[in-house]
Amino acid sequence: MTRIGGSNALITGGASGIGRLLALKMAAGGAKVVIWDLDRERLGRTVGELNGDHQPRAFGYVCDVSDREEVYATAARVRREVGPVQILVNNAGRVSGSSLLQCGDEAVERTMAVNTLALFWTCKAFLPDMLRQQAGHIVTVASAAGVIGVNRLVDYCTSKWAAVGFDESLRMELRQLTPNVKTTIVCPYYVDTGMFAGVASRFPWLLPILKEDRVAQRILEAIARDRRRLLIPPIMYLLPLLRILPVPLFDALAGFLGVNQSMDHFVGRNGEDQPPESRAPVDVRPS
Prior knowledge:
The protein is of the alpha/beta class. Helices cover 41% and strands 13% of the residues.
């Protein structure tokens, strides 16, 4: 079991959505929370919300997780100013919502950099401390798009399939290095955070658009119980079995369930992905 109370927990993309809710829940459970985000204003609000007039429970840093050197430098500051991280939640992500030929080359590169390559940089930054302490937990927030391909999500699905493979390979390595450092892969269906605004489900009773608070709570429970895999909703656990079907039948079933029409009215969160040079490198930390 992973002990949340008394731990240092770092959450990337932690100033909004699921990341923010996880930060609130972890802080309420007694953790010291470190939040990384690109949005200075939202980061400041979240840190202020967590700290209030009480003893500081949250520390905020503006950090672009796609920038390897920035990740390493910011991680070194966290180690000096807060201490070793016991729980790492790789939650930051981006989506373009465009078909392959409509998705610009730079957008593809940024999706892969944020959703996939960043996992390498954050884990390389914080895993050594976990190995020295013989304890720790690394959480990768992937997506249901990491276990099934979806129309208009070629870049996103590719990045999330890679995230699922990253977690599984890391889990195997850690079995050899130390079984006391745990990993959890999280693959939810669409969540109502605004990141996927406009998506729809043909059968909401079977594949509902998930509530972000419920997803955050399930992730928190999975961390505490050392669950290796969390797929939401439960029907997602059937996907590996369905892959024994012939490809045309599998594709027809996905079409019947509305998976490939789910992005038809996608609008996303406006202004979510600004170029790095437009963001001021300001740290928000409790005094």
